[in-house]
Each structure stands twice: as C-alpha cells, then as structure tokens.
Amino acid sequence: MGKRRAGRELLRSLSKKQKKHLREFGEEHPFYDKVFACCFIGCYCCCCLHLCFSFQSEDSEKSSAESDSEPEVERVSGYHKLLATLKTSPESESEEEEDESESEEAEESEAEMESEGSQETGEREGGDEDKKDVPEEEEGITDTAEQTLSQEQADGTDTSCDPRHGVIEEFTDVKHESEFSLETNFMEEESGDCNADRRESNPFKQHMDKELEEKEIEKMSTLPKTSSQSQWPRLGQLIFSSSLEKHKTLKADKEVDVKQLHLHKPLESTWPKVNKQFLCAVDKPTDSSFTPLQRELFCIMNSYRDLFYPERNALTNGEEIRYAYCLHALNHVLKANAQVLSNNAKRRDRKPGTDTDDHRDQGLTRPKVLMIVPFRECALRIVHVLISLLEVNDKKKIDVSNKKRFKGEFGSDPEEKPPNLKRPEDYEAVFAGNIDDHFRIGVAILQKSMRLYAPFYSSDIIIASPLGIRTVIGAEGEKKRDFDFLSSIEILIIDQADIYLMQNWEHVLHLMRHINLLPLDSHGVDFSRVRMLNLNNWSKYYRQTLLFSALQDPQINSVFNKHCFNYVGQVAVRNVPLTGSISHVVVQLPHVFRRLEADSVTSVLDARFQFFIDKVLPEYRDAIMSHTLIYVPSYFDYVRLRNYFKKEDLNFTHICEYTKKAAVCRARRFFLKGEKQFLLFTERFHFYKRYTIKGIRNLIFYELPTYSHFYSEVCNMLKATDSGVDATWTCTVLYSKYDAQKLAAVVGIDRTAQMLQSKKNVHLFVTGEN
C-alpha cells in the first residue's frame, strides 16, 4: 500500500505532457534526463543556426564547466524507477527544486521592479510568462523537446534518423492505404467532374498539358525577364514578368461567376457557403462568392502564375487569403485526382493488347501541393477549411480519418495561456492557438474522403513548418535524408513568410534548393503514367509559387525572383507606402537619420559597425547620456556589439531572444535604475515578447526594424518613463542606400526619395499623428 500511495503522489506531481509521455512510451522524456540534457541541446542547435551561435557565444564557459563535471556513468531515469518501484526519484526531486528556485528568482526580480513603479499589466510575475511566447535559450528548447516525440509520431514521413532520439517508428495511417490509393480506385459517376477536365478553357488542363520545347526552356534559363505594370482596383500596382515572348497581362474582373472559374463540381456549391462570413463584412458586395481582395487574388491564382502579395495582415485580411489559396489548392488536387481516376477506368476497359501513351497524368511522386505555414494553429485552420469545402451540406459529412488525433496534437488548451497577459492586437492574432513551429503532416484526398497523417508518398497535400520540413530533408552527409517527395510539387504556398525571418530563414532557402529535383528512387511509380515534363526534369517550370507576407524584404524578394521559374510568368504586388509608421509616434521626439556609405550589400555590415563605433557611440559614452537603448534587428550584429562592449569594458546589459527570464528581469531593473548605461535589445526578443522597456531616454536604431510598426512601438516606450524629461529624449537611426524599402515603410516614399538623394543627416521632429 505504501508503494502504491507513493506512486499516486508522484503521478499527481507530473505535468500533462509528462503523464502523456509516460503513458505512451513508458519512460521519461529525454529532455528531463539530466545525463543527456547537454547532448540533446547540442543536437537541437544543429537544427537552428541562430540558437547554436548564441549557445556557443554566450554560455561557452558555463557549458564547458558543466561538461567537465558531468559524470560519465549513466544514471537511472526517474521514470524507470517509477515503473520499477513506484518510489519517488530523488534525482527528479532535485530537478523540480532547481526549476522552482529559478522561477522564484525571476518572480523576486520582477516583484522588485514592480515596487519601483512598474505597473504594466501582464508582467507582474516575470517567471510566469507563457513559455510558448518566445524561444528562449533553454525554455524555447524545452517546449520543442517536450513535444518532439509526439510530433514525430504524427508526421507523414520516416524521420527516425532524427539525432534527438533513437530509432522510433512514426505514426502513419496504414490501414486506409488501399482506400486512398490512386492506382486501385476509379471515378465515381455521381462525383461529377469526369468531363470537366476535357474542356479546353479549363485552366488546370491548359497549364499542365502545355508542352514546352527545349528552346523555350533554354530561353527561361538564360534570358532576363521582361516586365509590365498594371493597376488593379483592390491589389493596386502589379508587376507582370515573364521570360517568354508570349506574355499576356491579366485584367481584373469586376464580377466573377463561380461557374466560369471551372471549379470542381462540389466546390461550386460549397465555396459560397464557406466564404459567407467574409462577404458579410463587405459593404455593398458586388460579388456573391468572393470579396474584392479574394476575387483579384484568385484571378491570378487560377491563371497559374506565380504570385507575391506582401500586404498580408493577420488582423484584417489573413483569413480571407487563407480561404482563397485553400480553394485553389483543393481545386487543383481534386481535378488532378479526377483525371487519374478517370484514366484508370479507361485503362481498365480498354481491349487487351492495345497500348496508348495518352494517359500521362501523374508526377514522379504523388504530393502535388506543399503548404508552408509557421505554426500548428495555421495547419489546423487549413485542414478545417479543406473539410468545410468538401462537405456539400450538413447531412453529407465527409469521412476524415484520424481527426481526433489531429485535433489533440494541433489544437490548443485555453487554460495553458495565463489570462493576465496583455499584448498588442497584432501579437494576439499572430500567436493565437498552438504556436509550436516543428510539425509536418500529409493529407490525402480522394473523392468524398480525407486521410490525415498519410505517408508523404501517399499524400496529395503536405502541410509543414520550415523547421519540420528541414528535419526531413536533412543535410549533406547525413545517412538518412529524404526529399524525393518534393520532386513533383505543382503548387508551393508559403504563407506568412515574414515570420520565418524571425525563426530561421535558412530553412526556407534549404527547401527551395531541394524542391522539384529528380528523385533518387522510383518509389513504385508507373512510368507509363508519368508526364513528360517530370521525366525531362522540367517540373520547376510548371510549379506555381504563391508567396504571402506582411512586408517587403530583400530576402523574401530574392526567393521570389531567383527560385520561381513558372513558364506562365510572375505577378508581384508593389505598392509604395505613402505615409510611414513614424506618423504613429505619439511622443514629442527628435528623430535623427544618419546615413552611412557602403560600396556593396556585402560590405554594409562592416560599414555599419565601423560607422557606429567611430561616429555614433562616442557621442553616448558620456555619463549624461545614460539610459540608452540600442535596438539591433540582426542577432549576429547583436553578438558583435556585445563582444565589443565587453572588450571596451562599457557599462551595459543585454537582452536577446535566448536570455533567461530571470536575466531579463535583472537587465530591465538595472537599466531602469540607471545602474547600466546601455541596453542592447534584439528585434526577435521584441517580436516574441513585446515587453515595454522602461527608463529609456536615448534610443539608437542600429538598423531600421524589419517590421515598420516596431519603430513606433519602440519610440512610444519613452512615454512609459515617469522620471524622464521630454527635452532630453533623443532618437538616432542608422541607414544606407540599401535600406530603401525599410526606410520607406518608416518615413514614407516622399521623404525616402529626398533622404536617398541627399548625403546629409536628416533631422525630423514628429509629434502626435503627423
């Protein structure tokens, strides 16, 4: 009885995630095993370059000391002791005590700040911030580590080579394999669209059946693109570009008839019902099916041109856009599968001995659509939209396999988020729901059924995060890596691309380098059914890329310009901001924009650093210029500045996205009291936390922020300083001619043109809504 009672007490002390892992695997999660903690963190750093850099530079001495003192003998896991004796492990108790002490330290630090007059809502307990708000140095790893094994079970491919754990078979839905196989199924007559793919005006047939010649391929590979401009009512200024001479500019349709869009039969009836929520918000709607934004976006999507839309806003039009590209992706998949199933019936009914080459309707692998989204919540919403579009009415529900498991792993628990957190509206919209950024799932759709957790090679749609797809693709030299499933992707959708700049943009570039390559294995494909474009390795010239972002950035532009080869052409929305975010600064503050000269884009990093330490920093070394916050967008610039400040023995403190919560509280307290003259502050920390830093009197933007509204947010932090004097506030901004897009988003296009023409420093005094 004593052992049983002790076991119950220990089980009560476990968190939900620990209980779930114990129930599923019968052992402690590897992250909670102190023996392997350092090994696991090192492996995870290999997947995140920023984290690896921080870990080496900030805690190199600490980690080396810990590794020297770490015993080589493997300790017995606390969970194994629980299973064996049902007695509490003293090792697990010590771990809990360490966690409690760290949490208490953070709470004491924050409480000390509050006693000095800090009354900000939602930051009363620095140690109680929601874990999922920011990937910090250890807690960010904890979040991912706690969910890793359960995520891997849900993935659609074999990633047993993941270095973070041993060989583990992932969960894949095998029992529905024959039901969702394209090779063994045939078109149901009542499903409808047997004859739709024969219509000559069908955009799907026109795009996929186009046979390019080698001369055209060579022209697209060598010649520059020709471009033309067009003005649309809702999207604004569009740039049409193409490498082929036969270039036609689209015209915006004022009104669209759903029947003229050549949608698959079920979608014609379900789309108006599903999209009704957005139509109600439109004043005097001229279209019964699309909002003005959706109508113009879908007009471009349905023409199978590449599209870059840099004005996605999570608060206003984010869901409208999601519904539009889900409609296009599902329409493409249903038409492609209907063509295969229809040809299956023809091949079945043909006479023996007859052979034909007319049934080339497949790629080298089955996946046709790849959707890249930042968080699990986004994947959850996409699947819900797809299900709604397939359900004709409430009586005819489609069969969705593994739906319960999907909701459990991609849904969120409302109780996990503390109710006292108060953040800006755009922050709440971006970080709503489950914000885990390591996931991937295969979706198979066949007529009236949907299969979640389908193996990738049996999937039609793959939904993944950049990190989730990167861990499958692997790196050069790894024994087990797989990217063959990307060989025949026909539609690539990258949504919320700006968020990947805050995560790890290298994962996106890694994906673009491995998409539409010839597979290394046949994977059981029937080569008599493979299109010639795939056999010729011309898949990338037929792939449509849809890129949505909240801003224009050189790195995002580079992906669209250098990795999109669609033979139909590209369409980019290029609207210039008339007024910048500086108009939203509500404090009376003089803004000094200091221009630095650089010969090239590659040399601007060194030029900015040298300009800062030679021209800007000496003006702030005096003690009278205390309370100076230095806003640094790039983490690598932050490390460079931090190392220089240490070398020069300057009185400073620093906060980045990997700083522990207790250290953040201490840094904020020291800066508020004036004990530290400088505060180095990274953009990614602001993106994930949105803390109000108090005590700022002097503000330096080492580089213009990635998000333009961050400029006004940081400037408005000065009003939170009770003891500050308005006349002593200063704001200095460093910029170069290569920062034209960011500069226009902050000061507006007119001022940007003047500032780029003049090589003198520009002084602006902004007050209120100017």
From TrEMBL:
<feature type="region of interest" description="Disordered">
    <location>
        <begin position="62"/>
        <end position="164"/>
    </location>
</feature>
<keyword id="KW-0539">Nucleus</keyword>
<protein>
    <recommendedName>
        <fullName>U3 small nucleolar RNA-associated protein 25 homolog</fullName>
    </recommendedName>
</protein>
<comment type="subunit">
    <text>Interacts with CAPN3; the interaction is required for CAPN3 translocation to the nucleolus.</text>
</comment>
<feature type="domain" description="UTP25 C-terminal">
    <location>
        <begin position="581"/>
        <end position="765"/>
    </location>
</feature>
<dbReference type="Pfam" id="PF22916">
    <property type="entry name" value="UTP25_NTPase-like"/>
</dbReference>
<dbReference type="GO" id="GO:0032040">
    <property type="term" value="C:small-subunit processome"/>
</dbReference>
<keyword id="KW-0217">Developmental protein</keyword>
<dbReference type="GO" id="GO:0034511">
    <property type="term" value="F:U3 snoRNA binding"/>
</dbReference>
<keyword id="KW-0597">Phosphoprotein</keyword>
<feature type="compositionally biased region" description="Basic and acidic residues">
    <location>
        <begin position="121"/>
        <end position="134"/>
    </location>
</feature>
<feature type="compositionally biased region" description="Acidic residues">
    <location>
        <begin position="92"/>
        <end position="117"/>
    </location>
</feature>
<feature type="domain" description="UTP25 NTP hydrolase-like">
    <location>
        <begin position="304"/>
        <end position="571"/>
    </location>
</feature>
<dbReference type="GO" id="GO:0019843">
    <property type="term" value="F:rRNA binding"/>
</dbReference>
<feature type="compositionally biased region" description="Basic and acidic residues">
    <location>
        <begin position="351"/>
        <end position="362"/>
    </location>
</feature>
<dbReference type="InterPro" id="IPR053939">
    <property type="entry name" value="UTP25_C"/>
</dbReference>
<dbReference type="InterPro" id="IPR010678">
    <property type="entry name" value="UTP25"/>
</dbReference>
<comment type="function">
    <text>Component of the ribosomal small subunit processome for the biogenesis of ribosomes, functions in pre-ribosomal RNA (pre-rRNA) processing. Essential for embryonic development in part through the regulation of p53 pathway. Controls the expansion growth of digestive organs and liver. Also involved in the sympathetic neuronal development. Mediates, with CAPN3, the proteasome-independent degradation of p53/TP53.</text>
</comment>
<dbReference type="InterPro" id="IPR053940">
    <property type="entry name" value="UTP25_NTPase-like"/>
</dbReference>
<dbReference type="GO" id="GO:0000462">
    <property type="term" value="P:maturation of SSU-rRNA from tricistronic rRNA transcript (SSU-rRNA, 5.8S rRNA, LSU-rRNA)"/>
</dbReference>
<comment type="similarity">
    <text>Belongs to the UTP25 family.</text>
</comment>
<feature type="region of interest" description="Disordered">
    <location>
        <begin position="342"/>
        <end position="362"/>
    </location>
</feature>
<feature type="compositionally biased region" description="Polar residues">
    <location>
        <begin position="144"/>
        <end position="160"/>
    </location>
</feature>
<dbReference type="InterPro" id="IPR027417">
    <property type="entry name" value="P-loop_NTPase"/>
</dbReference>
<dbReference type="Pfam" id="PF06862">
    <property type="entry name" value="Utp25_C"/>
</dbReference>
